[in-house]
Amino acid sequence: MNRRWGLAANITFLLIFLAACGGANESATTAEEENNTNQQELADELYFFNWGENIDPEILEDFEKEYGVKVVYDTYSANQEMITKLSSGTVSYDIVVPTDYFVQQMIEEGMLQELNMENIPNFENIEGEFQDPSFDPENKYSVPYLYGSIGIAYNKEKIDKPDSWDSLWNPEYKDHVTIQETPREGVSMALQKLGYDINEPAEETLAEAKSSLSDLKKNILAYDSTPADKLINEEVWIAQVFSDQAGVAIGENENIDYVLPEDGGMLWMDNFVIPKTSKNKYTAEVFINYMLEAEVSKKLTDAIPSSNPNAAAKELMSEEQINDPASYPEIPEKAVFFEYLEPTELGKMNQIYKEIKVE
Amino acid sequence: MIRNVRAAYLMLSPTLVWLLIFLVVPVGMIAVISFTTNLGFGGILYEFSTEAYRLAFSSLYAQAIWQSLWWSIVATVICGVIAYPFAYFIAHAGKWKNLLLLLVMVPFWTNLLIRLYSWIILMNNQGVINNILMKIGIIDEPITMLYTPFAVIIGLVYGFLPFMILPIYASIEQLDKTYLEAAEDLGANPVKTFLTVTLPLTFPGVLSGTIITFVPAVSVFVVTDLLTGGRLLMIGNVIRDAFLVEMNWQLGSAISLLLMILVLISIVVLMKFTSSEDDSSLL
Fold this sequence. Notes:
- The complex is a heterodimer of chains A (359) and B (283).
- With 359 residues, chain A is an alpha/beta fold.
- Chain A has two domains: 37-145 and 271-322, D-Maltodextrin-Binding Protein, domain 2 (3-Layer(aba) Sandwich); 148-267 and 331-358, D-Maltodextrin-Binding Protein, domain 2.
- Chain A has helices at 2-37, 57-67, 79-88, 100-108, 183-193, 203-216, 228-232, 243-252, 281-291, 294-303, 311-316, 319-322, 343-358; strands at residues 45-51, 70-76, 95-96, 143-155, 177-179, 220-223, 238-242, 256-259, 266-272, 336-337.
- In chain A, helix 5 packs across helix 6 and helix 5 crosses helix 13.
- Chain A is globular, with a radius of gyration of 25 Å.
- Chain B is mainly α.
- Chain B has a single domain (57-282), classed as MetI-like fold, CATH 1.10.3720.
- Chain B contains twelve helices and two strands, in the order αββααααααααααα.
- In chain B, helix 7 crosses helix 9 (190-219) and helix 11 runs antiparallel to helix 12.
- The longest helix of chain B is centred in the C-terminal third of the chain and has 34 residues, at 249-282.
- Chains A and B meet through strand 6 and helix 13 of A and helix 3 of B.
């Protein structure tokens, strides 16, 4: 009795083992085939790695219902974190969402697959000015997801409409000014005000930016990356802010407005990309295409305070949404995206901020 | 004898293990990292380098350390001046003693971060204090208190005052009253009694209060962050930013180590200076 059971158990185990091996081999070959022959079949699961609080979860549920693909969704809070996790090789995602110059960095490090635009016909919904970005010419590897800007929020009752960064230096606004707490954003503002390229900082231009920021210190109430509350209680009249912070302030206090300075202002853009390690490229492209559908894309920015680069989605929006100065300000010709800077260059910007604060 | 020593070590072992894991090892790691090579974005290459120390000894950090030391010394002195009479009063408050002590400790039940937010509401240009002063007509324009060194001192004194009160209270409480009676019998007036008997005998309390106020005050960073809106820096901010913003672990470690050495030196100096005082007072 015992022996027979033992034998049976052994055989069963052996069979399971063989089946498992076979199964594993099988799935490995199909994955390879899929990538080689570009087989147009949907996978069962899609691994999506996105910024925290950067989606309406309903969109994922809708996609699951419509296409029968389960979306496994994880979030990160910094580009560097996402890249570190991907390059560690312990995780594999089909879609990740790096910000502008991190796309460039990932392309240079050979981490991305080229997109097959035949599978993403909705790409034409993207506004012309957001196609062919400097960080990924011709959109070979990336598709715009959401964007925003860094510009000037100001109080219409307290001051005149500012036209350039220079307004922050106006001595009449002493103690009513805030600028970004992060060195790169602050130093870039000074560079732009002086007419220099924010992405090519040189020794001399940085020195000029430093003395300019040191003059500005007399005016500054605080170095604050989230000054919405200070704008709302009217302690601050003019601030260098991210557009979503301006949106929050405008929502609470109707005296507040947001503009991009004529020196340009800065833009950021989150983008869909497909990492080299993804085995479900076709499914990922189908998902990206779905996200670019007008209704889906509108639903996204109904839930998220960022701006939508999707022209078809904007057509569906209400007057109020389109006229929101924080989400859709007039974007000057000179507006620029941040590009990749070497750690040593970033180090110099950090140093400038510290020296100014200790002065 | 040997067995006793062994037993003593055995009983001490949990503490020793604790100190080893949470003090010796981390400090050792900081010391090692401070001499490695920076790869950028937090990368550590285990190759000897003194680059971090070259940076750490630049005038920028000297100035930040000097500012932190200066503000902490001022705050510690103010704490001492407030705390001594306060502690003296509590020690002589009879049946109210326990309640008063409890009130000193109540703030510890809430995180310092949250308590500092209430100071923002108080000291804001549109805040409670300015509003009241303007309503009564003492001032026309709001006084800028937040965002200045004044706010830093307020924050430090507020945050660390209990650390000064409690040890001083303990030493006053333990003071043998017969010394005071003896002084009185020998014809000393209250002022002289206080200066020559009470104060020297309670000095150890003042000393330990000074150390446990000064040491955390010098390295704190939330006070400058919240009460000056990032306008002013203490060495704690510099260290935090070195790790989190610049991701330069070598620099952060080097400055931390230098700060530790500096604080240890000040404590040794303080102890030496006061222990000789103690000796003379005992004679």
